[in-house]
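Minimal example, chain plus iron/sulfur cluster.
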Amino acid sequence: MAQSNVAVAPAAHEKLKALGILALNGMFDEMDALSVLRYAVSDVLPGDLAIVSSFGADSAVLLHMVAQVDPSLPVYFLETGKHFPETLAYVETLKKTLGLLNVHTVHPNPDDVRRFDPDGDLWETDPDSCCHIRKTEPLEPITEQYGGWVTGRKRYQTTERGVLPHFELTSDDRIKVNPLAYFSDADVVEYRQTRNLPEHPLYAKGFKSIGCAPCTSAVADGEDPRAGRWRGLNKKECGIHYDFNGAIASPMTAASRHTLWKDGAFIADPFKEWTEGTDPASARYVHVPLPEFLANRDAYLANPHPLGLLVSPGESVEDVAEDLSRFASVAIRFPAFSDGRGYSTARLLAERYRFAGEIRAVGDVLQDQIPLMRRCGINALVVTHEPTRHALVENRLPEVAIFYQPVGTAEVPVGTRPFLRRVS
Ligand code: SF4
């Protein structure tokens, strides 16, 4: 382990860079999770890798693998002060059952808690800030000590994680290892059952994804396992993995620092602007212009990193219809208020191609357009226009009750003029 707390790229990364994250992912795409972890520990970052675990519903799987590879690997548990007592008991159960020798508990800074959450109810009024002081801030100095860390994230969990590779090079030159990236929900259950691993005490009560007590509820049969996390709130991640490019988001000042508005809030944008000369084989977290994608299609399809697509007016999304599932996000450019071609592109994506990833509007995004954009399937906006940003923060969007063109099925003709429709 590196001794310094200063965030510098450890020397081990030179080896990884020389090998190439692309080649690394290529080598391990077909490998099982245990082999990925074993190789990461022995060859990629020996002595320089830590595990961060929530000790939640799925955690036994990764921790069991850790115990197989090296039970003395450092494991960090974020004790937010808001966990279920059952989770705290489960930490002890897993430590004992799996023989983990090096589990550390990380607490929030008491000064931060006193200052920002004196009554312990910040989760109710500002959960992003609560996660920031209880999770993101305490974890930062820990991860800075290591060349990389292992996560239990899986592709099936969220759309954003749908293209998660085994190895990621973060924006500060660290490695994130995701041995379970290709595990399905069924794989997790099967792994746990065949090895008779202890189950989280709340799992049988319907808690399929378990975080802090105030922000976790049971899910119904057939419901998305993560639906019980921050139920009813426009929040899906705690902040630790918020920016899957490696930088940790700072939601305390989200509205003033970020331009991406999604699910009701300004958040850190994992995507960066595409620049001329970007290598198609190694590009990551950029929206590739559609003509550029077509010109280098094979290289982009072989590229293992998360990518987006940028569609400008006059370009046809039909040209990339069969490759849409390759993209985590499609950005549609709106160059001017009067140019409505982007709405048609959004509708094609949402209705004809059932695109499940993010559809974002970029360019001249103004307050009056937003209800129409959302109606066409756009679920994220890059907003730089200050009055529009204020309107979003204050939830002041114009209401549009009647439309000329039908969209989707939940709309009904209005009165004797069937070309006018209203949301039913
Ligand atoms: S999950 Fe909830 S209680 Fe836990 S840190 Fe985040 S907002 Fe606070």
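Residues 80, 82, 123, 127, 130-131, 134-135, 211-212, 214-215, 238 surround iron/sulfur cluster (CB under 6 Å). The chain has a mean pLDDT of 79.
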